[in-house]
Design brief:
Elements lengths: L2 H20 L3 E15 L4 E5 L3 E9 L4 E11 L7 E15 L3 E16 L2 E19 L2 E12 L2 E13 L4 E14 L4 E14 L1
Antiparallel strand pairs: 1-2, 1-3, 1-11, 3-4, 4-5, 5-6, 6-7, 7-8, 8-9, 9-10, 10-11
Length: about 200
């Protein structure tokens, strides 16, 4: 085969392979969080602000319709007792709708919440169930939302999450979301956690 024909054939054969390789199958977020915690024990109401927290989370497909995910978040709260709350979330999700513009999914997760201060600590495990959707409203811009239910230790209740992501390129972008967890405490009272998360995203 003449060299020019061989080069054309090789270049044409490489086009679909390049397109397939460029399609992201997961992402990794590193974010800063501005937080607020409010505890009501039935007698008093205490509200504290998070003093600069951070987190890292990621997800990746393991099949056409299935994915795994994980998250770690640490928040220090502005209290005399040096309160710190760490969250670990990990689990499995399943895509119910999966098109180029729309994803609808459900996911189940293992949870670990640890609260530490100079007056003591608490470490509880639990579970969470969420349903969510993601919509690509422009080639580089998407919005998403989730609603779920958490049960951790002696607290349980609904959780809501809403956000948006913008990709500067196929590999890098920014993400912002707001997560609100509204727990009922066994024996009476409530605990609310509010997290505004701003971060960078790496697609792979």
């Amino acid at each position: 085969m003449p060299m020019n024909k061989m080069l054309v054939a090789a270049m044409l054969a490489a086009v679909p392979l390049s397109s397939m390789a460029a399609s992201p199958v997961g992402n990794l977020d590193i974010y800063y969080t501005d937080s607020e915690a409010e505890l009501n024990d039935g007698f008093t109401n205490a509200k504290v602000d998070g003093d600069g927290g951070f987190g890292i989370r990621g997800s990746g497909k393991i099949a056409d319709q299935a994915f795994v995910f994980g998250e770690y978040q640490k928040t220090d709260y502005d209290t005399p007792t040096d309160l710190e709350i760490q969250q670990i979330r990990a689990g499995l999700g399943f895509l119910l709708v999966n098109t180029e513009q729309t994803e609808v999914y459900g996911k189940a997760s293992f949870l670990n919440f640890k609260a530490d201060s100079n007056v003591g600590e608490a470490d509880d495990n639990g579970w969470g169930l969420h349903a969510g959707a993601k919509f690509k409203v422009a080639p580089a811009f998407s919005v998403f939302g989730e609603i779920g239910y958490l049960d951790v230790g002696d607290t349980d209740g609904p959780e809501y999450n809403i956000g948006a992501a913008f990709d500067f390129s196929q590999q890098f972008g920014v993400v912002a979301n707001y997560r609100y967890s509204d727990f009922d405490v066994d024996g009476g009272g409530s605990l609310e956690l509010k997290d505004l998360q701003l971060g960078v995203r790496f697609n792979f």
